Amino acid sequence: MRKFQEQNETFQANRAKMAEGLALALARKDQEWSEKMDQLEKEKNILTAQLQEMKNQSMNLFQRRDEMDELEGFQQQELSKIKHMLLKKEESLGKMEQELEARTRELSRTQEELMNSNQMSSDLSQKLEELQRHYSTLEEQRDHVIASKTGAESKITALEQKEQELQALIQQLSIDLQKVTAETQEKEDVITHLQEKVASLEKRLEQNLSGEEHVQELLKEKTLAEQNLEDTRQQLLAARSSQAKAINTLETRVRELEQTLQASEEQLQQSKGIVAAQETQIQELAAANQESSHVQQQALALEQQFLERTQALEAQIVALERTRAADQTTAEQGMRQLEQENAALKECRNEYERSLQNHQFELKKLKEEWSQREIVSVAMAQALEEVRKQREEFQQQAANLTAIIDEKEQNLREKTEVLLQKEQEILQLERGHNSALLQIHQLQAELEALRTLKAEEAAVVAEQEDLLRLRGPLQAEALSVNESHVTSRAMQDPVFQLPTAGRTPNGEVGAMDLTQLQKEKQDLEQQLLEKNKTIKQMQQRMLELRKTLQKELKVRPDNELFEVREKPGPEMANMAPSVTNNTDLTDAREINFEYLKHVVLKFMSCRESEAFHLIKAVSVLLNFSQEEENMLKETLEYKMSWFGSKPAPKGSIRPSISNPRIPWS
Question: Residues in domain GRIP (predicted)?
Answer without folding.
Answer: 586-635
